[in-house]
Design brief:
By secondary structure, the protein is of the alpha+beta class. It has 2 domains: about 130 residues, DNA primase, PRIM domain (Alpha-Beta Complex), CATH 3.90.920; about 140 residues, Alpha-Beta Plaits. It is built from 6 helices and 16 strands.
Amino acid sequence: MSSDTPKEVAVRVEGRTVKLTNLEKVLYPGFGFTKGEVIDYYTRIAPVLLPHLKDRPVTLKRFPNGVDGKWFFEKNAPEHRPEWVRTMRLESPGSTKGNETVNYVMVDELATLVWLANLAALELHVPQWTVGPRGGKRDPDLLVFDLDPGAPATVVECARVAELIRVVLDDDGVDCWAKTSGNKGMQVYAYAPAKDTSEYAKAVAQRLAREQPGLIVSTMAKAQRTGKVFIDWSQNNTAKTTVAPYSLRARERPAVSTPVTWDEVEECEVVEDLVFTADEVLERVESAGDLFGS
């Protein structure tokens, strides 16, 4: 963009007016990836992303000065939001700020997604449950196993653990699918096979930790994770959130939490096999569609 490009522009997004600012601001310095490119990514990925955000209160991870700057989590919808941004006020038990309720953003249309991207909300995190039209929390509809490698373990070891989880779930008659975290690890998902998803996930994690003690741990203690993969079953706690599929991550490069095939998981031999940038994910979706949930 030229130096005389206006700092603020107003665009029409499906009938909404969204003000965009500082589009040339670099948010990923290592790759020169700008805010304008972040907005472009979220606009183009919206057809497959929005269905996975529908009816789920979103927790934002904002990086106003880029991935190398200070960042913050934001649960409460910003007060300066446009009047058309839908929010949902929900009870917030155990809030670290002592709030009884949180007024979450509900991302159910493209304009809201573009508005959030303009706020440098690079990461979008969601729970494994949805809310009804009047704000009632529904039972969890998804089960998630969050696989976190302890160095020197990497996503390669996570892939091996994901395969083991798949076998256990298959024995229980439960289909599952995988995505990268966009960071160091990956996640395995399934449609909730039991009402108490947290207890089910815990039992699977503990079983695999007993069977594969050299590869897997199921406890939070970081001292036990060196060279192993922690199966974080606690992400099924209704107070927890997990990065949404197709969300950007605030890493050195504009990596994405990317749905992958089981063939890709099985064939993973080096870290780069399961690392995908925004451009690569757009190409994947164009050729293969949405792999999440399939």
